[in-house]
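Reopening this ticket.

The earlier resolution said the output was attached, but the attachment link was broken on my side. Pasting everything inline this time so it's all in one place.
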Amino acid sequence: MNFDFSEDQKFLGDQARKYLSEQCTTAEVRKVLNDDGMACHESLWSGIAEMGWLGTAIPEEYGGLGLGMLELCVLAEEIGRALAPVPFSSTVYMLAEALKLGGSEAQKQALLPEIAAGKVIGAYASSEGPGAPDLSALKTTFDGNKLNGTKIPVLDGDIATHALVTAAENGGVSLVLVDLNQAGVKRTVVKTLDPTRSHAELEFTDVAGERIGEAGQAGPLIDKLMDRAAVLVAFEQTGGADRAVEMATDYAKSRYAFGRPIGGYQAIKHKLADGWVKNQVARSNAYYGAWALSTDADELPEAAAAARVAASEAFWFASKENIQTHGGMGFTWEVDCHLFYRRAKLLAVQVGSPKIWKEKLISALENKAAA
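Inline output:
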């Protein structure tokens, strides 16, 4: 079985990398990092929309390109590699996929074309404070019409136009679609380790919303949505990890100590070799996840969890060792190493921590063995 991407998909990735290398340099990323009033890179977001990336996996009848999840995986990797400061994951991996999986025809007709055009920005609001979100103990409530509660932190919650909100209803959990541009919604910006991806606290007071799926029956839909998002985020992590290892390798070749490149010393060689191996493991698992995602295979929960665990470990390790390889300079604000470390720490918890996904992987393997 060949898990590699096709030539057309590789060409798409090459073109995406070329575009982002020109339009999303680390200098552009720093503009968002250094400006407290700048939540995302608006011109980059507009450019991504114009190139059709937002509609990659959206069917043509809803204004998308009608390609597929493999093409979306390719783009996710390049976005992760460039540390793109845009709400791509919240909008494409979460909102668009939720609508495709469980939205009504009216909801799809209303929002998917707007997502593809870049006019709608999504957010996924599940967390209600420290710790892993517990869908069985939600304080946010929905009565079929009105939503009440508080969600914190919400990725891209300060700039989103619409949010997917998990809420208690009829003794179960519902996934509620909310237009954030209405009375009763209060947004408060929350500072995090990586300001290039903004977060907010969202307070809902008698806010109108509409369900995606059945009342109190959103558990399976949320599980499937998270599995799909996990694979895509894993590709972002893989892209970032690869770039971090490349940065460390380039520096090790050019930095001299005691008359020779530091890359010639065994301690540095081991760091770079370990990073490369972890990246290869992460890529293998991400490819397995891409196959399961694109074919809607029964193995998706297992593949998503494996991809998530391996990619989280690879990006964290690569970003950490990139700083170490750069030595004293690696810890300074002027050197770009910290940009990758920040993003690695953020992505590690974006759709659940590695601990959660390790538990999911164990459960998936146990279920497979028992079948």
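Reporter confirms the inline version is readable. The chain has a mean pLDDT of 95. The longest strand covers residues 146-155.
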